Amino acid sequence: MTLAIPEQTPSAAEAPASAEHRIAPRHRVLKSAKIVFDDWTAMDCAIRDISETGAKIKVSNAAMLPHKFRLLITSDNTIRDVQIAWFHHDTAGVAFRGEAKRAPIRKL
């Protein structure tokens, strides 16, 4: 499955730093996380920066991610519904949808 992103959405390589208009400032982190699919299968990823409204994640191939999924942040045992905002090679920006919830570890 491939994900089509509208042409006006810049990739990480094309967007100059001054073009970023974020609602909340991002903080550099290095946290392990899991991408959780609808059938509760999971794939490892790393969170590279995070804010109140979203995160930048590193995966093996961001173009293969579904448009919406869950992001399990293992260090604080929370899970967030997210949606892809942009992607470029092995990096993707995700927007948080709704509030963080405690992760149902037994399902993973």
Question: Summed up, what is this model?
Answer:
Helix content is 0%, strand content 49%.
Helix content: under 10%
CATH hierarchy: architecture: Beta Barrel
List the helices and strands in order: EEEEEE
| Radius of gyration based on Cα positions | 13 Å
Count of distinct structural domains:
1
Average pLDDT reading = 83
Q: Please give the order of strands in the largest beta sheet.
A: 1-2-3-6-5-4
Q: Which band does the percent of strand residues land in?
A: over 45%
If you had to describe this structure to a student in words, what would you say it looks like?
This protein is 0% helix and 49% strand. The chain contains no helices and six strands. A six-stranded antiparallel barrel has the order 1-2-3-6-5-4. It is globular and about 35 Å long. The two termini are 23 Å apart. Mean pLDDT is 83; it is low at 1-19.
Record the SSE blueprint:
Layout: E1 27-36, E2 42-50, E3 54-58, E4 68-73, E5 78-88, E6 91-102
Antiparallel strand pairs: 1-2, 1-4, 2-3, 3-6, 4-5, 5-6
Supply database-style keywords.
about 110 residues, mainly beta, Thrombin, subunit H, six-stranded antiparallel beta barrel, 6 strands, disordered N terminus
